[in-house]
Specification:
Chain A is an alpha+beta fold. Chain A is 19% helix and 34% strand. In chain A, helix 1 runs parallel beside helix 4. Classes of the chains: A alpha+beta (290), B mainly alpha (87).
């Protein structure tokens, strides 16, 4: 839908002028089957969704997990579309216009100021570092109405303990040419997100077949050391949720900057040098944003 | 979708590169290369049209606003993270 009607200007303008637009991620509304963790949203929010779902069933509207609904101003579902229908032609816009006619809604200002929907997660103020990753398959462009319309993004939080694992054991002794291996578990925490746009985005389903990330100091001056990073990844990441042997092969490179005296990481950047997924090229790049 | 996956598997079609960038230098500092490559991977303005809508991401806030302003609600439920393009 993001690759289709929800990125269309006419749909966006209609939503902003006449509606209260909201989207929700199903994962937040149900228990995590693998860990048993409760839904991420409060119970009252889960109840609000379930009430809408049941009311839609009672009203004999189409329902589903990936679904578009229109609710009346008092919260009753009055129209709906399965995602496959909503993404087709002008079906979604037509549903929106039916609702505007039905409720005689006058145009008005956007109620919620539009903002970038990909934003850094809240992090504790104890020196955690936030990384932002973007990944794009070959051929990614907005005119593709399928998987490759837009790049994918991820946010990764490195705790202070994680950051320490990027560094050699004795940072004050680092000289140009000093080399070390990054802890594989930490390399996995970052590189497990190195895959292009796919339907499955549960990195818990990834299987790392080969991973290495090495660092070598290339400069030490002015209280700042810079190390070149070189890495290698082979990873199975199923395209859909069912298991298939869909393989990422990637060579990556980048750099790490740190204060050798305080052993504090200042900058981290890593990108694919050459990478394929299911025999198609892709690129991914990650950097610290704070 | 089957055709799409088949074309991927066979490497068919003319595709623009993900990012037009040279290979990383074989030795030495790669800061300049990495800065450019990471920047080239990031979403461009025309790839953020989804963000032009004033979205909420919780139902109760939407219901409250709808009642206050007498507007209908558009609700889209999905698997994954649409805001991240991971869905």
């Amino acid at each position: 839908m993001r690759a289709g009607p929800l990125s269309r200007t006419d749909v966006s303008e209609t939503l902003n002028k006449y509606f209260v637009p909201v989207y929700t991620s199903n994962e937040d509304y149900r228990e995590d089957k693998r860990t048993g963790a409760p839904p991420a949203v409060p119970p009252e929010e889960v109840t609000a969704y379930q009430k809408i779902y049941r009311a839609a069933l009672d009203a004999k509207l189409s329902t589903g997990t990936v679904h578009a609904y229109v609710l009346s101003p008092d919260g009753r579902p009055v129209d709906s579309l399965h995602v496959a229908d909503a993404a087709r032609d002008d079906k979604l816009l037509q549903m929106l216009r039916r609702a505007v006619d039905r409720f005689q809604t006058p145009p008005g200002e956007t109620l919620v100021k539009p903002k970038v929907q990909s934003s850094a997660p809240p992090v504790p103020s104890d020196g955690a570092m936030v990384l932002h990753l973007s990944a794009r398959a070959e051929g990614t462009n907005p005119s593709d109405d399928s998987w490759h319309a837009y790049p994918s993004e991820d946010w990764i939080v490195l705790t202070r303990t994680d950051q320490a694992k990027l560094l050699p054991s004795n940072t004050s002794a680092v000289k140009v040419g000093t080399s070390w291996e990054i802890d594989p578990a930490l390399a996995t925490k970052v590189l497990t997100h190195f895959y292009p746009q796919t339907e499955n985005n549960d990195v818990g389903k990834n299987r790392i077949d080969r991973i290495a990330l090495k660092a070598m100091a290339v400069s030490v001056e002015g209280g700042l050391a810079r190390a070149r990073l070189d890495g290698d990844l082979r990873m199975c990441h199923p395209f859909y949720h069912k298991h298939t042997e869909d393989i990422v092969e990637a060579k990556v490179a980048g750099y790490l900057e740190f204060d050798p005296t305080t052993a504090t990481v200042k900058a981290f950047k890593l990108a694919t040098d050459k990478a394929t997924y299911m025999n198609r090229g892709f690129d991914a790049g990650v950097q610290n944003v704070r | 979708m089957k055709a799409f996956l088949l074309s991927m598997a066979l490497g068919l079609g003319v595709l623009t590169p993900a990012v037009a960038a040279p290979a990383a230098p074989a030795t030495g500092d790669v800061k300049e290369w990495a800065d450019a490559k990471v920047a080239a991977c990031a979403p461009k303005p025309e790839e953020r049209r989804f963000d032009q809508t004033g979205w909420l991401t919780d139902i109760r806030s939407a219901l409250t606003l709808a009642k206050e302003h007498n507007r209908p609600v558009f609700l889209f439920t999905h698997d994954g993270r649409m805001g991240l393009g991971r869905c």
